[in-house]
Amino acid sequence: MTSPFRTSTGGRIDRATTVEFTFDGQTLRGHPGDTLASALLANGRHQIATSIKLGRPRGIAAAWAEDPGGLVQIEEPFPEPMLLATTVELHEGLAAHGLPGQGRLADVPDSARYDAVHHHVDVLVVGAGPAGLAAALTAARAGARVALVDEQSEAGGSLLSGTERLDDAPALQWVAAAVAELAGLPEVLHLQRTTAFGSYDDGFVLALERRTDHLGAAAPKHVSRQRVWRIRARSIVVATGAHERPVVFADNDRPGIMLAGAARTFLHRYGVLPGREAVVFTTNDSAYDAALDLHRAGVHVQAVVDARPEGSPRRAECERAGIRVLSGAVVTGTRGAERITHALVAPFADGEVGAGSAITCDLLLVSGGWNPAVHLFSQARGRLRYDAALGAFLPGEELDGLAVAGSAAGVPDLAGCLTDGQRVARATLAGPPAADDRLPTAPESAVPTPPLVLWRVPDTSGADGSTSFVDLQRDATVADIARAIGAGLRSIEHVKRYTTIGTAHDQGKTSGVLTSGITAELLAIPVQDTGTTTFRPPYTPVAFAALAGRDRGRLFDPERVTALHEWHVAAGAVFEDVGQWKRPRHYPRPGEDMEAAVLRECAAARTGVGILDGSTLGKIDVQGPDAAVLLDRLYTNLMSSLKVGSVRYGVMCGVDGMVIDDGTVLRLAEDRFLVLTTTGGAAKVLDWMEEWVQTEWPDLRVHCTSVTEQWCTFPVVGPRSRDVVGAVFPQVDVSAEAFPFMTWRDTTLDGVPVRLARISFSGELAFEVYVNPWYAVAVWQRLLDAGRPYGITPYGTETMHVLRAEKGYPIIGQDTDGTVTPHDLGMAWAVSKKKPDFVGKRSFARPANQDPLRKHLVGLLPVDRQTVLPEGSQIVEFRTDGRLPPPPVPMLGHVTSSYRSAELARPFALALVKGGRERIGETVHVPVDGTLVPVEVTGPVLVDPEGARRDG
Amino acid sequence: MQLIACPWCGPREEVEFHYGGQAHVPYPDSPAELSDEEWAHYVFFRDNPKGRFAERWNHSAGCRRWFNAIRDTATYRFERVYRLDDPKPGVTELARSREEGTAP
Amino acid sequence: MAELLRTSPLDAWTDALERLPDTVRIAVEPYVAMVDVRLGTVGAAASAALGVDLPTAPGTWVPAGTGRAVWLGPDEWLLSSTTETPEELEARVRAAVLPLGGSATDVSAQRIGLRLTGARVRDVLAKGCSIDLHPRVFGRGSSAQTTLGQAGVVLLALFDAADDVVVLVRSSFAGYLADWLLDAALEFTTTPTHDR
Ligand SMILES: [Zn+2]
């Protein structure tokens, strides 16, 4: 069955192949090369949906991305909302329906792939119409690295929509030759179906390539569906053409009303007649092509209505064809329900509309002139200038590295566009153009009659502009603009936000300049003074999935793992994210929940022996004669007095005196230290050291190098740890006398260097084992084997946290928040009084840091011995009368860490509490689930306060 | 995505860099001798001009070197990058480098 | 003396990497000794002590004996050796540069090398690397510290055609980067077997 509105010949469609699709549940046919819109029009279907606010029928009003009307929801092959029927390429099995403004997101995962590619060129040409092709050829022929991107399915731009000739042959022959020539040059990247949607700093342009959308279900699964090209260009040529602009009149929104140029596109590119009986309403010469072409194709053109009193020199051509031309006339309104049935035409002179009559039609073509597509120029912060003769905004200045060519720069004719493209491209070249840089010959074009700038036809319908639509998608009218101005708004940006004009999917491609013009008219000021709203990327909508590209699922955020990761997985570890690291949180046995697993792991470490993968700890090698000087300046305590072979705990503060990290320091040699940082602080502390060394103390003879991943670290923890470590490393005397707390020893295991350190983050007797990660699995296994007689228990970060919290060891970043000094943590002992200065010292003397009501780190014991206080809970206190103070209830502080303790057989917490150390022994309250839980304030160290176990 | 010219690695995307605030704010020689107010000025107070501003930058995802830059805070344009041991460029020198096209 | 078993962070990726087509081959480089060298001034003394002229042009590397010397910064290099143990390399280099005010740190396990060869290598890298890898810009002897996907890397160009590149990555990011590379190379496989 042939579609009733398909021409018998012509167009760029593959007539030999038929594809079946469904729209609003109806099965229809089209051809490869169709868009959904052209296929619907070929089937006589103009209406797509009803409008979002007013429920008025709306149809296809343009042929590409500027269409304000034809929004569809795709159902098959994959649900996707808010696409334009004019930009969806038809394929077998496409299923869609019309959308009144709002779509529905898919409720199934998107199985398509998306990616991004970086590309560097000398010249990026945007738009493969006449100007863009000429520019790309000129640059490529001269040997430049060139990218040519164009949003359509094939090159040619406006030439696809007409019957122009070049070199005395159909212009598309020249297009094909140009494309073939570019394809033969190795340094040219030519992409169709690729929309440059944003231009940014330093020649950076983002473009979206729709790689497989047009293939439908046949799209290969391993190829990305869409790709974001991140193009860095030394020069950019913007050859994006122009958008036709409508004229606003009453009831200008009915299906069957479309831009004149769009009708030409549907005819010539898709072989579709958009109607049988047409009226053409224009303010310029360009719509005469549409009238004559449609007439030749068999459409009955009832009349050309030209608002200019003198009409056009092409009037005679029309009249020879039997087309009536009414000059000095306008369309004042329309009739019809789901499709236009009549155009109301009236004489028009000096802004006054005379008495009109109705002309029957099923198609009303409108042309109010052309708006150059200056988006990319404007996004690059190019200033626009209003051209009163064209009624359009044009590039108003020269930009470094970005030039506009062809009709995007307001060039009106084909020959001009070709030479403009070549001229602009030549200006980007470092050397002379190629000898064979030839342009095709375009026929002379007639001198056009100047267009009339007409934004709107006065509303004679009595509706006062409330049916004169400026933005069809937003149902926004001339009356709305008048209301905005009546409300006192003057800035076009404010009018936009008040009326919502230009905020829909099309971002005002047809309505933006109209709004500027109508606003200027209503305010009686020049259009230049109104200006335009700011052009912002993206030029057309871009799916979030495309922007996310490859960065989703497992690749959303890198997962850093230690050398033991596979072992942890096999051991059934439950992992926790610590920054980008995946760390085992606990190792549940069958039937255990986290609480049970952690109680078991804690008990093992306190009574037997446990082992932790602590490899994520930050490690920095600090070398040089002034290494000790640097550490003395950066740590609050003295590091230069540390003996080789020994270890010292240290705290680091910012210049404001607030703790930024803590950890232990091993002195490896007189001129060499190994600095250990928290897992989260590894990069930060190295950067901190580098910053001071490079920017403040370049004369210090010291170098800092990250060795975080050079050493795996396994704390072996618990009363039996000495037995285990002694068994694995028999060359080391692990006795308390020979290897005391806070010392380290080097040894080897089967020839592999191993470092042991008596460091304890648990309060237990503990040895940290350091080894090159190449051998991590082997050494870990040796420790497990040696520990089997003692029930060695691998434990995770949760147990590590409980053990350290029981000892009152803070985690920087959990128990602190950048407002906590060492003194607040009860660590005055770690602050040197001997050193004349170190980073942060001066701030300790600031009055704010002397306040006795500063928050201190304390312990909390819920009196009911049951409640595990939620971390982050606020702490309040009762008045002497046993009641809460009236709201707002003063907050004393908050819970920073909270766990159930196996050792204490009750829950406990750490908290920052105002004047906390003075409150030890008091009872305060913590709101939990609507009740106030009484808690006793204690010192932060709840287990082995004397440190006998640790030192053992 | 702006490009920033590392004095060593050349132009790289801005995401490879970390900002380090105002340049040429040296650590005081003797903090203990400063008044609380003077110390607070060092710790907390920085200029916030519209226009040219001398800043510190670090090529954190590349060579990890710190360097200084003169940047226009209104246009974001980098007018000059210079090494830490280079003196702060004067206004006339900046104007000259602009004319000669040697500004990055 | 029993040898301690050595493992690689990419052991689990061996099969997936082997299935890649000739246009994008990815091989995990064998473990080698690597040392981070810091030295304020390079000259005849440094060359004599180290046995290699450390490259002073940013973004370059040179062969150094059986290994490579990679520029990491104006006073920093990555020196590798395939014939020495990590301890031997650190000791030798440290002894050589200490008198010159330099330092040397064993970083053999900090990074792992992936060697990418094939006609599509540049296309794969361009999916996640913002610097220009055109052979005219990034030819043999070029190096770059930058970001590939979301991982910090050092890229080394082994040949002019940009079809032979070594990617050095922090060991903890190796799995992520291997996954990323497999994903990026997927479209160049004719019979895709790796999918997420
Ligand atoms: Zn750099």
TrEMBL record, chain A:
Pfam families: Fer2_4, GCV_T, GCV_T_C, Pyr_redox_2, SO_alpha_A3. Residues 122-379 form the FAD/NAD(P)-binding domain. Residues 855-944 form the Aminomethyltransferase C-terminal domain. One of its GO terms (molecular function) is nucleotide binding. Its EC number is 1.5.3.24. SUPFAM superfamilies: Aminomethyltransferase beta-barrel domain, FAD/NAD(P)-binding domain, Folate-binding domain. Belongs to the GcvT family. Binds 1 NAD(+) per subunit. The lineage of its organism: Bacteria, Bacillati, Actinomycetota, Actinomycetes, Geodermatophilales. It is found in: Cytoplasm. This is Sarcosine oxidase subunit alpha. InterPro entries: 2Fe-2S-bd_N, FAD/NAD-bd_sf, FAD/NAD-binding_dom, GcvT/YgfZ/DmdA, GcvT/YgfZ_C, GcvT_C, GCVT_N, Sarcosine_oxidase_asu. Residues 432-451 are annotated as: Disordered. Its cofactor is NAD(+). Residues 467-550 form the SoxA A3 domain. Its main location: cytoplasm. Residues 564-835 form the GCVT N-terminal domain. Signal peptide: none annotated. GO terms for biological process: tetrahydrofolate metabolic process. It catalyses: sarcosine + (6S)-5,6,7,8-tetrahydrofolate + O2 = (6R)-5,10-methylene-5,6,7,8-tetrahydrofolate + glycine + H2O2. Keywords: Cytoplasm, NAD, Nucleotide-binding, Oxidoreductase. It is an enzyme of class 1 (oxidoreductase).
Automatic annotation (TrEMBL), chain B:
InterPro entries: SoxD, SoxD_sf. It comes from Geodermatophilus dictyosporus. GO terms for molecular function: sarcosine oxidase activity. The lineage of its organism: Bacteria, Bacillati, Actinomycetota, Actinomycetes, Geodermatophilales. This is Sarcosine oxidase subunit delta. One of its GO terms (biological process) is tetrahydrofolate metabolic process.
TrEMBL record, chain C:
InterPro entries: SoxG (IPR007375), TrmE/GcvT-like (IPR027266). It holds the Pfam family SoxG. Gene3D superfamilies: Heterotetrameric sarcosine oxidase, Probable tRNA modification gtpase trme, domain 1. Coiled coil: none annotated. It comes from the Bacteria. This is Sarcosine oxidase subunit gamma. It comes from Geodermatophilus dictyosporus.
